[in-house]
Each structure stands twice: as C-alpha cells, then as structure tokens.
Amino acid sequence: MNSEDIEKDDSPVVVGEALQTLEEIMADENSLWTKITQPRLEVLLKGHDDYLKGLLGSKRASLKFLDMSYLDLSGRDLTQADCTGARCEHATMEETILRAANFYAADLRFVSFIGADLSRADLRGACLRGVDFTGANLTEADMRDGLLMKSVERGELMPIMAESESATLDRAILKEADLTGAKVSNAFVVQTDLSDANLRNARFVRADLSYANFTGAVLDGADFTEANLTGAIFHGAVLSRTILDNAVLENANLTGAIMETVDLEHVDVSAAHLPKHVAKLDRELQDILADHAKWLNSGGSEGVQANFTEVNMAGYDLREVNLAAADFSYSILKDAKLSTGNFMMCDFCFADMRNIDLTGCDFRGAKLQRANLSGAKLTGARFDGLPVGSRGGGMWPANLQFAKLRGAELSGVDFSNANLEGADLSNSDLRLADLRGAKLVDADFTNADLAGAKLKTADLRGVKGFPRD
Q1: What pLDDT is stored for residue 118 in this prediction?
Q2: Which residues contact 463 (CB under 8 A, 6 or more apart)?
Q3: Most buried residue, 80, 208, 229, 390, by CB count within 10 Å?
Q4: Is the pTM of this model over 0.85?
Q5: Domain residues for 313?
Q6: Is residue 19 included in any domain, yes or no?
C-alpha cells in the first residue's frame, strides 16, 4: 500500500463493524478490556508501520477494547488505527500521528496528546476529561455524542461506559489546538482551556461550554447554536461570523473580544459582561481627562486617575493627549485617533486597537499583552524601556506579549528591549525599526518588511517567518 492508497482510504472505521463483534469480545463487563503490555504493544505498532508502508500481508492495527493505560505511543504513526472502546487513561501520545484514527467511545482520560495530529479522527462518545491537546491538530475531528452498548439478559442493552463519562471534554486543555471544522455538538466541554485555539467553522451546537476559557481563540464561523456558554471567558477572542443563536451567555465575559459581523438578534446578551460605551459613563470624557491631568501634575495627591477599562471609545479623537498611567485594559479603541499621545506606563491589555492611529506615541513601560493592533499606524512610536528611579535602577520595558500587530505600520518604531514574545507581526512594515535587545521568542514575522531593522542582541528563539541569511 502506498501513501496515495492510504490517503484515499483514510475515512474512520465503520462503528457498526466494531459493534458486530462486541458480544464475542466480552462475556461480562469485567472482561471488556484486554490488558496489553508495552512490549506487546510495540509488536502491534510495528505491524501497523508495515501496513502504512504497504508491505504484503500487513494489517492495520486493531486496538479495539485493549487496555493501554499508562503506555507510551509517542511519535508513532497510527493513521487509521482502530481504537474503538479502548482504555487509554494517562497514556502518552505526544507528537503521535492519529489521522482518521477511530477512538469511538474510548476512555481517554488524562491522555497527553501534545502536538499530536488527530485530524479527521473519530472521537465520538470518547471520555476526554483532563486530556491535554496543547498544540494538537484536531481539524475536522468528530467529538459528538456516541455510546457503545452491550447485550445483557433478555436481549436488553446497557452502556459499556457510564453515561456520565461519555462524550466529556471537561477540564481538558486545548491551548493553541487546531479544531478547524471540528464537531463538538452535544458534548460536555465544562471548564476546558481553549485559549489561543483555532476554532474556525467548528460546531458546538447544544454543547455545554460553561466556564470554558476562549481567551485569544479564533472563532471565525464557529457555530454555538443553543450552546451553554454560562461563565465562559472570551478575552481577546475573535468572533467573526460566529453563530450564537439561542446560546446561553449568562455571566459570559465578552470584554476584550473582537466581534465582527456577529448577529445578536437571536441571543440574549443582557446577562453577559460587555464593554460599556464612553457616553454612558458617570462623568463626561472631558472631566475625566481634566481630573487625570490634575492627578499627574500633583503626583497623585489631587484629581483622579483615568480608568477606561472595558469602555468602548471606538473612533474617538484624542490626539496629543497626556494619559500616562491610565487604564485602557479590555477597552475598544478601534479606529480611534491618538497620535503623538503620551501613554507611558498605561495598561492596554486585551484592548481592541485595530486600525488605530498611534503615530509618534510614547508607550515606554506600557502593558499591551494580547492587545489587538492589527492595521494600526505606529510609525515613530516608542516602546523602549522607561528608566526606573533616578539612581540607575534599570529599565522598565514595554510588554507586548502575544499582541497582534498584523499588517501594522511600524517603520521607525523603537522596540528596543521590549517584550514581544509570541507577538504576531506578520505582514507588518518594520523598516528601520529598532529591535535591539527585544525579546522576540516565538514571534511571527511572516512576510514582514525588516529592511534596515536593527536586531543586535534580540532574542530570536523560535521566531517564525524570519528571513535567514
């Protein structure tokens, strides 16, 4: 069998075929699973390797109803393997290739799938409690309900696994996982970490996602129809064309979320936590600015520090304003005009700053973790360190960890010593930018223009899309 044959035959195993032999495999509930040792497992995996190579007489690995708890399958290629009903609690499958593998109704509690490829895998009815899918590929994986049954006295059917343990994803970790087009309808995803996950076009219809963490997740086209999103967190998440019809959003936190072309006509957001418009604040904007000026000039003894956290200020014109040390966390500043402003030591964490004009602004010592500055104009802005104290107490660097600066105008920007770990700088204009001493670990420079940029002593570990000589 060659690779082309495998590609054509990578559909999940037909569950009905597995069910036909179910009664032959088990006489009673205690004999459902056959315990297997690591050496015996290695023999089966070697046979599967031969199958993938197309060797004559080789067979696809059948791991149905095997007890592989605590065993190690890391780094192996198990494309199309049949693991129907298998027990795999605490097994290790890191970097394992499991494309189109069948885990129907399998017990996968606390399995480590870090970096694994589970694209098109059948995970229906699998118990995924506490699973670690960090960085895994779950594109088009099926995680909907499913339940294996067995025949008992008088032909009655009973579930093999307790219902409370079927189709659960609670307390799982899916950080940075790719679930593009995945099906999670009717599943329980309670308290699951989906931060920075790619959930484009994923289906969560009627799923229980209460208290799930979607921080920084991409939810473009995701379908949450009738889903339970009680207490879910969407800080910095991108909701574009996301379907929320009849979803439950009680106590859901949507501050800092990017909401584009989202139809809210058929969903009740009255009990959700949303940004408030600046026009609805207790004080007029000019009074807030005046009090902040007094606070700055008096060293904090007079006036009041400006607090715009969770405030919608989209499109406002505040050019040349001095709002040093103000709080803009979780605010909406999309399309605002703030050029040549003083924002030293400000907090812009999770702020929506897309297409904002920040030309020539001073951001020394500012916090901008996970701020979305895509398409922003920042030509000549300063993000270099702010001196601490008057006796050589060091520098306080600007923090832009995981900030989104896609397509931003950053020519001539001073990022020296700034923290840009995990930042997205793809398609940005960084000509003549000063990045000396900057922390650029895992930053993305795909298609960025770095002509004349200064990079001496910058930390470039794990940088993506960076031009190499």
Answers
A1: 97
A2: 440, 441, 442, 443, 444, 445
A3: 229
A4: no
A5: 275-469
A6: yes
